[in-house]
Amino acid sequence: DSGVTQTPKHLITATGQRVTLRCSPRSGDLSVYWYQQSLDQGLQFLIQYYNGEERAKGNILERFSAQQFPDLHSELNLSSLELGDSALYFCASSPPVGDGSRDTQYFGPGTRLTVL
Amino acid sequence: AQSVTQLGSHVSVSEGALVLLRCNYSSSVPPYLFWYVQYPNQGLQLLLKYTSAATLVKGINGFEAEFKKSETSFHLTKPSAHMSDAAEYFCAVKVSGTSYGKLTFGQGTILTVHP
Asked: Are A24 and A5 in contact (CB under 8 A)?
C-alpha cells in the first residue's frame, strides 16, 4: 500500500458525459501527478500540482482539467468523454522540497474508466 | 527532453533463471532513473531508483540495476526468478534535482516465469 488513495476504482459511463476522479496523496506529500495508461499510448503524464498550484503539464486534452485543493487532495475532471478516453488513470504523489525522497513518486491503485 | 526504450515487450524465463530486463534512456541533463512493477489490476510499485549516488542500485524483492552512463542504460536484473515475479515492469526517467516534473515511462516489459 503506497498510501495514495484513488476513488472510484471503476467508472463506466457514456460518450459525451463528464466524470470526476479523486486522489488523496500520502500524508505530508505536496505534489500530485496524474497519468493515463492506455494500450496504445502506454503511460502518459497529464499534469502535476504542487501545494495547490499547477507545476507541469503534459499531454492533457483541453477537455480534461485538474485542481488541487487546500487539503491537498486532487481531482481530475474529464468532460465530453470519447471512446478513446477509456483508460486507467493513476495519481501519484511525492514528498516536498527538502525531503530526501522528493524525486520518488508513489502511485495509487488507479481508476479504470470505461466509456461506452 | 527525456525518453526511455525498453527492449523486448515480452520476456519469458524459467523459475530459478536469471532475469534481465533492458532499459536505455535518452536525456539532455543528468537523469534520475526508476524501475516500477505493475501486477495485474494493481498500481505501480517502486522497485528501485538511481539518483546519482551509487551506480549499482539494490531494490526490493532481490532486484538490482546498474546505471551505465557510457551505454545510457539502466538494466534490471535478478539472479533467480520466482513465480511471483511475473508482472509488467516499467523503466522511467526524470529530470534530476527537482521536486517537480514528470516521469517519462518506457512501453513496459511483461515478464513471464515458467515453472
From this structure: yes
- d(Cα A94, Cα A107) in Å, to the nearest integer? 9
Chain B interface, best mutation among A43, A90, A104, A114, by max B CB count within 10 A: A43
Restricting to B residues 1-40, those with a Cβ less than 8 Å away from any Cβ of A are 32, 34, 36
Indicate the pLDDT class of residue B96, thresholds 50, 70 and 90.
low
Which has the closest alpha carbon to B76: B2, B1, B23, B16? B23
Q: Which of A35, A30, A85 is nearest to A52 (CA)?
A: A30
- Residues B78-93 have pLDDT tens digits of 999 999 999 999 999 9
Query: Cβ separation of A55 and B100 shorter than 8 Å?
Result: yes
Beta bridge partners of B64: B58, B77
* B46 near A CB under 8 A: yes
pLDDT for residue B100 is more than 70: no
Q: Does A15 touch chain B (CB under 8 A)?
A: no
Amino acid at A13: T
Map chain A to HEC letters.
CCCCEEECCEEEECCCCCEEEEEECCCCCCEEEEEEEECCCEEEEEEEEECCEEEEECCCCCCEEEEECCCCCEEEEECCCCHHHCEEEEEEEECCCCCCCCCCCEECCCEEEEEC
Instruction: Give the C-alpha separation, B32 to A59, whole Å.
Output: 21
